[in-house]
Amino acid sequence: MSQIDRSREHLIDTYRKKAKHYDITSRFYPAPGYPQRAQRRRAVQALGLRAGDRVIDIACGTGLNFPLIEEVIGPAGGIIGVDLTDAMLARARERIQTNGWSNVSLVLADAADFDFPSEVDAILSTYALSQVPECAQVIAHGAAALSAGRRWVVLDLKVPHDTPRWLTQIGIATVGRFAAFEEWIARRPWEAIRAAMEEDLADLSWTELFFGTAFLAAGSRGPRTAGQELQGNGHE
Q1: What is the per-residue DSSP string for 77-114?
Q2: Among residues 79, 201, 193, 80, which one has the least CA distance to residue 131?
Q3: C-alpha angle 45/48/50, rounded to 5°?
Q4: Helix (H/G/I), strand (E/B), else coil: 120
Q5: What span, in angstroms and rounded, lies between the C-alpha atoms of 120 and 54?
Q6: Surface-to-core class of residue 164, CB atoms within 10 Å of its CB (0-12 exposed, 13-18 middle, 19+ buried)
Q7: Among the listed residues 201, 222, 211, 88, the one whose alpha carbon sits nearest the alpha carbon of residue 154
Q8: Pick from 29, 102, 147, 154: most CB atoms within 10 A?
Q9: Distance CA 112, CA 95 (A)
Q10: Which residues on adjacent β-strands are paired with residue 157?
Q11: How far apart (Å, rounded) are the C-alpha atoms in residues 31 and 54?
């Protein structure tokens, strides 16, 4: 089994165990008092949504972003929630049923293997994409699926600049619950995400949050060329 496969199996096993109480325990992620909900709201605002938009939530988990998105897109819009873990999607399905949303569909898939539909209006990932070894590939696939001018937004954790190692391990030790901490630091996925967004999107904005322990990145799909239009028309 490859390292990527081992990481995937570890994530599935971890989130299956946490799914039942995730909505409660996530309030303390990555540490008690961390402004996670405020950051999620800021990420959704960065999407520039309009009523009727179609939104893809990558690694949606239990659907914590869904209410924030629904506030803007309304019943005429739609959400596709994608997640790797069946137990997390089961909780997301309960949220959908409780709220009576008929415009949310769920897909069980690895983000790296997800077949993005064409001409979507926005793509979002919060606190999850850095755990995907192929995060740059996910950014590229999503960017190709966006309608011109629409937004790809990533909110995730990172290691602060020039931070002593001991403080980094204390401040972001929670990452170790989801992936090998040393491997995560060595891989520096936030740099790969930034590079991919700079490569595949226009007007990239990068904002470091909460003393550099998180980042909010947003970019838009540039105008399509004739060749891209033909390629896009064949993608379903």
Answers
A1: SEEEEEES-HHHHHHHHHHHHHHT-SSEEEEE--TTT-
A2: 193
A3: 110
A4: strand
A5: 6
A6: exposed
A7: 201
A8: 154
A9: 25
A10: 214
A11: 32
- Using alpha carbons, select from 196, 191, 232 the residue that is nearest to residue 208: 191
* Chain segment 174-197, per-residue pLDDT in tens: 444 444 666 777 789 999 999 999
What is the sign of the dihedral through the CA atoms of 161, 214, 26 and 85?
Answer: negative
**Paired tokens of 202:** 């226009």
CB atoms within 10 A of CB 66: 22
Q: In sequence order, which residues have a C-beta less than 8 Å from that of residue 70 and are 6 or more positions away?
A: 77, 79, 99, 101, 103
Tokens linked to 121: 């209006």
For residue 83, give the amino acid letter.
D
Q: Residues with Cβ < 8 Å from 3, sequence gap 6 or more?
A: 133
Using one digit for the tens of pLDDT, what is the confidence trace for 82-106?
999 999 999 999 999 999 999 999 9
State the fold for domain 3-230. Rossmann fold (3.40.50)
Only one residue has tokens 């946490």, namely 18
Domain ranges of the chain: 3-230
Residues 205 and 155: their CA atoms lie apart, in Å, by: 12
pTM assigned to the model: 0.85
Query: What is the β-pairing status of strands 54-58 and 120-126?
Result: parallel
